[in-house]
Write a structure and sequence with these properties.
It contains 21 helices and 37 strands. With 734 residues, the protein is of the alpha/beta class. The chain is globular.
Length: 734
């Protein structure tokens, strides 16, 4: 008897935060996933900065991208769903992670690696006029803006750093080095409340770092506290006013405030954990990194401990889910501290011994590069081998080794679809106003019409809530394209095999998200059908009402073509499946696919002579359908066609599995250029934009209205011309 190909999911593990320990857990999980466990990562951003390289970035030695850990790529590697939201609480009784924007996420086992913050909410003016060194992403962004202001002469090179510990001094040296390379010597001042700087550092290291501060002109004021932050100055407790165009908070780093409301035992605000990294309050909750306090072996906050905790955390999370026994974490008593000194040099401090020199930067750089390579150069995970004997054609179908795309990229190609639809018999009904192949069925309904459409998508993300929103918006596309008002929807859902508890959680997520989408459009989710299968597939059948449906045909020569959004979703999704897309690009893609096109449809409907949504056949395929139905041709302006960030670059290495079929369907009809744009004109779009033909005099006003309404990429991309259905280009695409 054969074992089931798909094993049921039975337990939910949720990682809260994308810190170093969790990033390493994701990498290990991808190599050895635990059967039956569904893994979720909750993070406010698609990337997490690596702390070890931040001073080098501030000093100008590394670009911002060099220190970003790509959580989207790691989540794909681990088979995890990634929820881009900030945690706001932990409900122990209900087993839920509370989120800032979205609905709670259920867990059976949870782990926290949310770092710390050096924000100073009690210091007047800090929130308005300063930036905390942690979280690192906000500081790095503000630093880049400050450098631009200094370069343009809009800001003086005056910086104040609150906190004279290692973090504050290291960042002060980095900022001084960068600013000195830009022009006149800067004024960088470190403010330390204690009697001396660099507390907790060995005497030799302290002396070396003070020499580097003197070399770069960094001054330090000890025994002083900031009492308020103003625009352009720091007020001190001795009544003095220190000019500062940029103020950075690097003192008093503390865990996230919401931990105090969880009911977990805390030490100085951090989650108190035992030697297995479990909360001493609730063994289902783990914590690592700076947000954890090791009760049996307290250590200072340092990234090295998060890195060393990762393999033990990975093992113990598996044990908590039912696989093995937990192991203790035994931290080292001391660790090598490599503190950068602005330029490409560093000071080493361990066991009271100190070294200083450029070769230490080389060592630090190698350590950092090795760490980042381990999280970016992920080992390939080959699929199961083919059997020795296969039917003719199987190996050709699998040529290239690419997995089947999700979303619209998984649909049947236009050639096969049209050939099959051509065999359908003509309908004898007089109340059906459309035939096979139209965007939707149009039925007579009172004095108007009722639009009926259905669409199903193979899941492009394991986040059921996000996928439900995308699938619902995708299904609404044909209703909006015909100028109809959505009326009702039925769901058709296939869930992967999972326990009844996970079925309930997943169905709740899907139905809540879909109902929100339909309710926002005045429609009701009236019911549907569910089943279990090999993978998550979501579909919706939607009806809508219209007084006058907008046809796909009807475009006239001289009309302008308006596209409401950017292209490239299929290519980006193919790149993401191959772990070759940038996390921020995928985050922006999810945001675009989650944006309703209803407001755009309502702006265009009173003016459009023809309209369709751009989905599986790509812009070229859907435009050609419009032209064939209208008896016209079109000329496109390549430079006006908007593309999603990262799509052009991704198209050089990736294409959706549906793209070749789209190209074959256009053979002999459209001559596409051999450029990234040419490839993206064939790209299948999921929850794609609307394409409308409108009278030319109204085009500019409509584009402006669309952009004001929240469609910043809306563009006039060409115009309708006379002649047989064909697409030409006004200029050579670049």
């Amino acid at each position: 008897m054969h074992a089931p190909a798909i094993l049921p999911l039975t337990r939910d593990l949720v990682l809260v935060g994308g810190g170093h320990a969790h990033a390493l857990v994701l990498r290990r999980w991808g190599m050895r996933p635990l059967a039956g466990a569904r893994l979720t990562l909750v993070s406010p951003a698609p990337t997490a900065p690596y702390t070890g390289m931040l001073p080098g970035h501030i000093a100008g030695h590394y670009p911002r991208e060099a220190l970003e850990i790509d959580l989207v790529r790691l989540a794909r590697h681990a088979g995890a769903r990634l929820i881009l939201d900030r945690a706001a609480g932990l409900d122990l009784a209900a087993g839920r992670v509370l989120l800032q924007r979205g609905r709670p996420v259920a867990w059976d086992v949870a782990a926290l690696d949310i770092g710390i913050t050096s924000d100073m909410p009690d210091l007047p003016g800090f929130a308005e006029h300063a930036v905390a060194a942690k979280p690192l992403d906000a500081y790095a962004t503000r630093w880049a803006a400050f450098l631009a202001e200094v370069a343009a002469g809009r800001a003086a090179p005056q910086v104040a750093v609150l906190g004279g510990g290692v973090a504050g001094v290291e960042l002060a040296l980095a900022m001084a080095h960068r600013l000195r390379a830009m022009g006149p010597p800067p004024a960088v001042t470190v403010i330390e409340a204690g009697p001396e700087p660099l507390p907790g550092t060995g005497a030799g290291a302290r002396a070396a770092l003070l020499r580097h501060m003197d070399r770069l002109g960094v001054t330090i004021r000890t025994g002083r506290r900031a009492t308020a932050i103003e625009a352009g100055a720091v007020l001190l407790d001795d009544g003095s006013r220190l000019p500062a165009a940029l103020t950075v908070g690097a003192a008093g780093a503390q865990p996230q405030g919401w931990l105090a409301d969880t009911g977990l035992a805390l030490t100085d605000g951090a989650v108190t954990v035992d030697r297995h990294l479990r909360s001493v309050t609730d063994p289902r909750v783990f914590a690592a990194g700076d947000c954890a306090h090791m009760a049996e072996s307290p250590r200072p906050r340092a990234g090295v401990f998060a890195v060393r905790q990762a393999p033990v955390l990975w093992h113990n999370l598996r044990a908590a889910l039912g696989a093995g026994r937990p192991r203790p974490y035994r931290p080292q008593r001391d660790y090598l501290k490599l503190i950068s000194t602005g330029g490409k040099g560093a000071v080493a401090d361990k066991w009271g011994r100190t070294l200083d020199g450029g070769w230490l930067w080389w060592l630090k750089d190698r350590i950092d590069a090795r760490f980042m390579a381990g999280l970016s150069q992920l080992p390939p995970m080959p699929g199961p081998p083919l059997p020795r004997h296969t039917a003719t054609g199987l190996r050709e179908e699998l040529a290239g080794g690419r997995p089947l795309c999700a979303g619209c990229g998984a649909k049947v190609g236009p050639g096969a679809l049209r050939a099959s639809l051509a065999r359908l018999p003509a309908t004898p009904r007089t109340d059906l106003l459309t035939g096979p192949g139209d965007d939707a069925a149009v039925l007579r309904h009172g004095e108007g019409v009722q639009v009926l459409t259905t669409d199903h998508l193979r899941a492009l993300t394991p986040d059921a809530r996000l996928m439900a929103r995308i699938a619902a918006l995708h299904a609404l596309g044909d209703v909006w394209a015909m100028g109809a008002a959505p009326q009702a929807a039925l769901a058709s859902l296939t869930l992967p095999r999972m326990s009844e508890a996970l079925q309930t959680r997943t169905l709740t997520e899907i139905l809540e998200a879909a109902a929100e989408v339909f309710a926002a459009e005045g429609a009701a989710l009236a019911g549907g059908h569910t089943s279990l299968g090999d993978e998550l597939t979501l579909g919706f059948t939607v009806t809508g009402l219209a007084a006058r449906p907008i046809p796909k045909g009807g475009a006239r020569p001289g009309d302008a073509l308006i596209l409401t959004g950017a292209l490239g979703s299929g290519t980006l999704l193919a790149a993401e499946m191959a772990r070759d897309a940038r996390g921020p690009d995928i985050a922006r893609l999810w945001e675009r696919m989650s944006t309703p096109q209803g407001p755009a449809a309502r702006l265009l409907a009173p003016h459009a002579r023809a309209m369709t949504d751009v989905t599986g056949f790509g812009l070229a395929g859907h435009l050609l359908e419009m032209l064939e139905a209208s008896g016209t041709a079109a000329t496109l302006a390549p430079e006006a066609i908007p593309l999603l960030p990262g799509a052009a670059e991704a198209s050089r290495r990736h294409a959706s599995t549906l793209a070749p079929a789209n190209r074959a369907a256009l053979a002999g009809k459209v001559a596409l250029p051999d450029t990234p744009l040419g490839a993206l004109l064939l790209d299948p779009q999921t929850a794609g934009p609307l394409l409308a033909a409108v009278p030319a005099p109204q085009a500019a006003g409509l584009v402006a209205a669309l952009r004001t309404a929240g469609f910043p990429e809306a563009s006039e991309i060409g115009h309708i011309t006379s002649g047989p259905a064909a697409i030409s280009f006004a200029a050579t695409p670049g």
